[in-house]
Amino acid sequence: MLAVNTRPVGDESLIRRLRAGDAEAFEALVRRETPRMLAVARRLLRNDEDARDAVQDGFVSAFRSLGDFAGRCQVSTWLHRITVNAALMRLRTRRRKPEDSIEDLLPGFLEDGHHARHPHEWRDTGEALLSSREDCEFVRSAIDRLPESYRTVLLLRDIEELDTVEVAQALGVSDNVVKVRLHRARQALRTLLAPRFQKGNA
Amino acid sequence: MTLASEAPPGGAASGPEALTCRQFVELIYEYLLGGLGAERTAAMNAHLAACPSCVAYLKSYEASIRMGRLALAPSDDLVPAEVPEALVRAVLAARLGA
After folding, report:
1. Other CB atoms closer than 10 Å to residue A28's CB: what's the count?
2. At A166, which helix (H) or strand (E)?
3. What pLDDT, on the 0 to 100 scale, is given for residue B43?
4. Alpha-carbon radius of gyration of chain A
5. Lowest pLDDT segment from A16-20, A59-63, B5-9
6. B32 to chain A: closest CA residue
7. What phi-psi label fits residue B3: left (phi over 0), alpha (psi between -120 and 50 degrees) or beta?
8. Total CB pairs under 8 A between chain A and B
């Protein structure tokens, strides 16, 4: 294992060298971008082996399409998107495990339509969250606890900011399924976060 | 736990177009997108004006989205500090084989 090479490499000259088939440039790119790509793939796949395979698939696909890279975004942004797509391909093809129902994480209502439990106000949860590693970790593990089909949609729509049509195509489901899953995933995440962030329970 | 039967009497469920809390919560997704149309948007706003529970719910729903984004925003502590050498080798070998 080697330390990350953090030397700034200008994207323009890097791309020129890559297109010319410069082996050192390929290695520099792979060393620079692999850790970040691995983190993205792990987040979506939650499995190290699948994540490594997705990163490899992503690089191979990137090397093949170097000629199409128009330079309108940074190389790292381009590779990020390619990694997400490669991870999605893995998600679609790997055998689906039975997952827990999300119903228990959705809000309950009485017969007359009122909340079964009054939602409490939450303490401030804005940018201050960034300063608390424990809060960040709590939110990440709450997202990890969502059933996979909901978690994936939440990550793709709310975190990766893909649009509904892109997510529907990537997952092979209808636009409406994406919308329903996203709404349920957000509600479930809210349920999981409430004990920590509602006032009086901090 | 506080039961909803302690909610303010009348609360949100008054008038022919009034929504229940359950209906309000079901429609939050489209409401936030601005995709509900004038009549239903007005019904949502009227419900919010009368129902502190749904105000709290909506705020915490939005906070959950925001916190997910913040917690998973690219940051150094999510990226491994080391380059996995075996993976680098595999990628470079795959390039030559591709």
Report:
1. 17
2. helix A164-171
3. 95
4. 20
5. B5-9
6. A183
7. beta
8. 178
